[in-house]
Amino acid sequence: MEKKNTILREGFLVKRGHLVPNWKARWFVLMPDKLLYYKYEGSKRDSCQRGKILLKDCVITCPFLECENRPLVLKLQTKNSVEHFLEACSREERDEWAADITSVVHKLQTGDGGKVTNQQDTAASELHNVIDLSKVLDSMYDVHSGIKMSSHVEQGNTYSNCFSGSAVVDWLVFMQLVLTRVEAVTLASALLEEGFLRTIGLKSAEALRTAGLSEQLVDDSTALYSFSESLKKRGSVKAQTSLSAVELSGKVMKRGYLLKQGHRRKNWKVRLFVLRSEPAFLHYYDPTTDDISPVGGFSLRGCLVSALDDNGVPSGVKGNVQGNLFKIITQSETHFFIQAPTHQEKMDWIEAIREQT
Questions:
Q1: Global pTM value
Q2: Strands of 150-154's sheet, edge to edge?
Q3: Do residues 74 and 68 touch, judged by C-beta distance below 8 A?
């Protein structure tokens, strides 16, 4: 039996406030009965917790797609109907947090960590035999609650008014048109087969040629799709704008929350870092704002990256910041000081960046 003080998972998530609906990065710690969160500054988290979420009888919604420009949010609703909105750094990270929290909730329901009888588990394998695809399409195309379209870049080519395969799957699950992601792929593949959706770019087109009938749509954030041309006369869906600069067109190799020292004030802030290849760039975003544009970034060509000593405060670092630090020197001699939450993450980032330099 798990002890109450056992840490099951920990890491950065961005949380929306209750009284003031702003977003702030917090360090979350998942325990066998609750989720704790702390403020994180410099080299360590705040000694006192900022809050806790009791997980007994908690309801999890993942994905939660009602937050504009934030597709990586999951929602927790407590037994007392208090809602918490948490954003992860990637779809994989979001789904892993949701799975671990769900596991805790199920164990709390049984009281002994045994299996939970879940009606959805039984129903999940029974996809409805009769589904009105035209009604699904109407919902998907709805200006207010339908799937959001934006511009995407694949191998240097910019495609407008389209969406990814994973976005389709997320939307179908969120709208409760299906129970599982596997069912969502089957339903979306039927829409593709009937000509309601069409492939955009190489990845989705290749899958259409090679996959079976029930797997023609790929649950992938880089496989692109759009509504068929015949739907354009039905009205225009408001599209989101998206940057299409060459430096943002590379394949995403790694994403994660890291702390970065500012160049002027030398203060440390949590940033969402995105590593891309071909061309190799490292961009960083402010996860507390809804702006989808990076606040900074640089080419990795000719960069030097190195781990900093965990003993003492390295030269160039302000404050008593120790542990899991690394430095990137760009070709223009700009120095970036970055801190990872763990030693392993620091080494993973250094290795991933070196592969692109």
A1: 0.68
A2: 150-154, 157-164, 224-227, 197-200
A3: no
338 compared with 150, residue with greater pLDDT: 338
Comparison of pLDDT for 341 and 120, the residue scoring more? 341
* H or E segment to which residue 11 belongs: strand 9-16
Picking from 291, 301, 284, the residue whose alpha carbon sits closest to that of residue 336 is 284
Helix 165-174 / helix 181-193 crossing angle, nearest 10 deg: 120
Structural contact between residues 203 and 224, judged by C-beta atoms closer than 8 angstroms: yes
Torsion angle of C-alpha atoms 273, 277, 279, 281, degrees rounded to 10: 20
Is a pLDDT exceeding 90 seen at residue 2? no
* CA–CA distance, 113 with 98 (Å, rounded to integer): 17
- Per the CB < 8 A criterion, the answer to whether 197 and 225 are in contact is yes
Instruction: Give the burial string for 275-307 (b: 16+ CB within 10 Å, else e).
Output: bbeeebbbbbbbbbeeeeebeebbbbeebebee
Residues shown for the chain? 357
